[in-house]
């Protein structure tokens, strides 16, 4: 019988600093077969464990097309992440997953997409953007709205030139600041400043407060609830629907989500 908690060993093959407390880790499974068999949908996550520090869920940040390794972008927060930030290239961690549903891949080739990411919310959207770059023939038009508090906190800056070749990338920073010549204003202001891609499905990830205002804006613009998807974040332990820690409105965020359509979320009290 398949053990749903089975942890596989992965080696750190690269670590890059993305911001003051954020690092992009590149891993490769120690067992070659585990690496070749790895397949996931953008928006899915896995549970990472560091010996002596515990375990926590993290979204894949590379795309499924990148077969030789997988990446995750992590903010240092508490026990587990501080343990992980002490590790070096060559050190090993435990990985179990992939878990959850991911973004609705059945619509990728059929509908234009508008990705809306706020701050660290770009982490689970990046695999999708990298898929667009690596296999553009699988997608229709893709527009990205990405915002952060200030230019220093815009993540993956070195990749923007490449992303711009395949997507309409629209950036904004909440505050005016020296050296920033781009748009200023919270992410919802982009809806008034930029011509929207035609009739898109909207995929949203960001802090809870952003969800409230993005939903409000999408309602004003008469988007259908079923065309809006949001990724929810809850404290998780098992990741597989047994511990009950992530339950919201009768759904398990860990296994029914973390991605839900706004049509479903509307019926889930305190989901956002
Ligand atoms: C599906 C999913 C995907 C995720 N993907 C990423 C990712 O790609 N990159 C990333 O950096 N983080 C991600 N997270 C968040 C990450 O799992 C937590 O930040 C992690 O548990 C921190 O572990 P820690 O032991 O260092 O912090 P802890 O010691 O557990 O906590 C430190 C502080 O952070 C708070 N905290 C921890 N987890 C959460 C949470 N889920 N929601 C709200 N507050 C929390 C705690 O209350 C505490 O104040 C994801 C979470 C989920 C549920
Ligand atoms: S994390 Fe255990 S049930 Fe969802």
Briefly characterize the structure.
The chain has 272 residues and is α/β, with parallel strands linked by helices. It is 18% helix and 31% strand. The protein has helices at 32-37, 79-85, 126-134, 160-166, 190-193, 208-220, 262-265; strands spanning 8-19, 22-29, 45-50, 54-59, 70-75, 92-99, 113-118, 142-148, 168-173, 183-184, 201-205, 228-231, 247-248, 251-252, 259-261.
> Can you identify the CATH class of the largest domain?
Alpha Beta
- CATH superfamily placement of the largest domain: Nucleotide-binding domain of ferredoxin-NADP reductase (FNR) module
Task: Report strand order across the widest sheet.
Answer: 10-9-8-7-11-12-15
On the 0 to 100 scale, the average pLDDT is 94
Low-confidence stretches: none
Summarize the amount of helix as a percent range: 10-25%
Give the strand content. 25-35%
Bound molecules: flavin-adenine dinucleotide, FE2/S2 (inorganic) cluster
How many domains, in number, for the residues? 2
Largest sheet: 7 strands, mixed
- The assigned CATH architecture of the largest domain is 3-Layer(aba) Sandwich
Number of helices: 7
Order of helices and strands: EEHEEEHEEHEHEEHEHEEEEH
Report the count of strand segments.
Answer: 15
Structural class: alpha/beta
Q: Identify the overall geometry.
A: globular
Rounded to the nearest angstrom, the radius of gyration is 18 Å
Distance between the termini: 37 Å
CATH topology-level name of the largest domain = Rossmann fold
């Amino acid at each position: 019988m398949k053990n749903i908690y089975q942890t596989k060993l992965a080696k750190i093959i690269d670590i890059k600093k993305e911001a003051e407390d954020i690092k992009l880790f590149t891993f490769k499974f120690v067992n070659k077969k585990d690496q070749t068999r790895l397949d996931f949908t953008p928006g899915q996550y896995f549970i990472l464990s560091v010996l002596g520090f515990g375990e926590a869920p993290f979204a894949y940040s590379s795309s499924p097309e990148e077969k030789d390794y997988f990446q995750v972008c992590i903010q240092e927060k508490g026990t587990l992440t501080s343990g992980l930030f002490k590790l070096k290239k060559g050190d090993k961690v435990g990985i179990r997953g992939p878990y959850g549903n991911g973004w609705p891949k059945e619509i990728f080739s059929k509908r234009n997409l508008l990705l809306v990411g706020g701050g660290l919310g770009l982490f689970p959207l990046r695999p999708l953007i990298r898929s667009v770059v690596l296999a553009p023939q699988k997608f229709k038009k893709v527009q990205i709205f990405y915002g952060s508090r200030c230019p220093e906190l815009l993540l993956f800056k070195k990749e923007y030139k490449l992303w711009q070749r395949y997507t309409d990338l629209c950036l904004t920073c909440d505050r005016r600041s020296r050296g920033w010549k781009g748009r200023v204003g919270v992410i919802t202001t982009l809806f008034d400043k930029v011509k929207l891609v035609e009739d898109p499905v909207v995929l949203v990830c960001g802090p809870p407060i952003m969800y409230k205002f993005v939903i409000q804006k999408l309602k004003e613009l008469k988007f259908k609830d079923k065309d809006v998807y949001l990724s929810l974040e809850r404290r998780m332990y098992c990741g597989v629907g047994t511990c009950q820690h992530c339950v919201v409105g009768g759904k398990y965020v860990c296994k029914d989500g973390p991605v839900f359509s706004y049509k479903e979320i509307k019926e889930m009290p305190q989901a956002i």
